[in-house]
Inverse folding.
């Protein structure tokens, strides 16, 4: 958790939950798990428990102390809609986001079924963007679930992109992030898959954010596509 972030599409991270479990191929080389497990067993460390799921209610008010408006990635080290996160804690997170109305909160989940199940029991302020991770067509159903969620902005994170999404409908989406896997064991992302998504975004007039080519050493691949970077965001009114 940090009031600054090296993730290209956000400004800060906030983790009122840490730890997770794998649900699909996109989880295979999870960066968060790799980081957390380095600290398992070290007394007093925030990741003393490694990547085991843990609730942090004492962190709920942290965004209120960040006075400068910023985009905040919620649970970069977990999944807010993990089956072991109680509804009451999720509701507390949403209340905290509502109170910190000057920030924009970006939530990503791979558990779209639970997101949809709980969505009508959550208060959705306009400063909350909701997204799902879609690594290939085998999990395209997550997008169908997301379409039914009353978030002000609905977005897709196609990272790590592990297959063609040419047949994916982007209806109801307001933003698409694309990126290749990075770090040890990084799997290949084909250029044609990126171009397919870029073309679909252009046709639908959806902002397209190209995060990285990835690779074992991601800096070698860079972020350029057709000689430039694509850092597009949804157009929203800043409160």
């Amino acid at each position: 958790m940090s009031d600054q972030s090296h993730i290209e599409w956000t400004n800060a991270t906030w983790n009122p939950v840490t730890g997770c479990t794998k649900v699909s191929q996109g989880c295979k080389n999870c960066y968060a798990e790799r980081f957390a497990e380095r600290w398992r067993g070290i007394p007093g460390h925030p990741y003393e428990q490694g990547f085991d799921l843990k609730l942090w209610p004492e962190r709920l008010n942290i965004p209120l102390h960040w006075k400068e408006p910023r985009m905040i990635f919620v649970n970069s080290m977990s999944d807010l809609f993990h089956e072991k996160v109680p509804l009451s804690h999720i509701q507390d997170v949403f209340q905290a986001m509502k109170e910190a109305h000057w920030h924009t909160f970006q939530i990503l989940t791979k558990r779209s079924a639970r997101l949809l199940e709980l969505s009508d029991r959550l208060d959705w302020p306009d400063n909350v963007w909701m997204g799902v991770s879609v690594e290939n067509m085998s999990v395209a159903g997550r997008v169908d679930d997301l379409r039914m969620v009353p978030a002000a902005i609905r977005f897709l994170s196609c990272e790590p992109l592990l297959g063609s999404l040419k047949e994916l409908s982007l209806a109801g989406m307001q933003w698409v992030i694309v990126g290749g896997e990075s770090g040890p064991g990084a799997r290949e992302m084909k250029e044609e898959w990126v171009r397919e998504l870029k073309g679909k975004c252009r046709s639908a007039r959806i902002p397209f954010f190209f995060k990285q080519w990835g690779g074992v050493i991601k800096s070698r691949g860079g972020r350029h596509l057709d000689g430039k970077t694509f850092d597009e965001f949804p157009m929203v009114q800043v409160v």
Q: What stands out?
A: The chain has one domain: 12-221.
